[in-house]
Amino acid sequence: MKYPLLTGMFLLFSFFSFSQTKVPDTLVMETKTGEKVILIGNDLNVFKNMKTDSLIRKALQAVEDSLMQRKLDTLKKKKLSMEERYYKVLKKHQIFAFQPLIGAGLIRDKVSPSLGLALDFAPQRQDYYSKLYPGFYTFINVAINACYLFDTDGADRHKTFSQIFVEASFGNRYNNKISNYQYQYFDELSIGLGYLVKQSGDYFEGNTFKLFGTIVPNNSFIRIKPELYLTHDFKKIFPGISVGIKLR
């Protein structure tokens, strides 16, 4: 052996490295129904401040995530049929869909009914019925929305003033009938921007924009829409809110 000193140092270093390798600690817990859950960690002390139910819940969530990932990997490797991938197949899968808008809101201190028509663009609408991962799809929405304000003119005659906004928004719609994951409180979430293209009366001044969000609670037929109006070329800002009926 040409280099006995180097060889000896290498063996000595390997021995110390191996001897310092820590064997992971194992914690075995038994559930009320008799099943056993095995947790492995570098130090059992990290489990001391956690409740048993919390540990089991985290372990089960990890298993569910692992199974979900396996299903996704299967999808990538194997081209499944529509019946295998979706529990419902859309017969007329159209990426565009019209959506009527009916509701009423409160703009500053004025009650305002509204009517409109929206066009949805959703190329992955079929994913709403997916078996392989929590069903949802992303949409882009363009709408014409008219709101009506009731007031009196200079001669104290009651008049209706119409305000027409062009709106654009994007967000997600979730299928909570099959999803047990993080969006079970909402069926829809989106954000958007609107611009006033036609106004009557003097309620708004100059260029008027509005920022808004859309929230549809789980299993609900109402659409809640918080709003923020920026008028008079951004010199005046005030809030609003509207509630619409979910027709489709």
Automatic annotation (TrEMBL):
Residues 1-19 form the signal peptide. It comes from the Bacteria. Keywords: Signal. This is Outer membrane protein with beta-barrel domain.
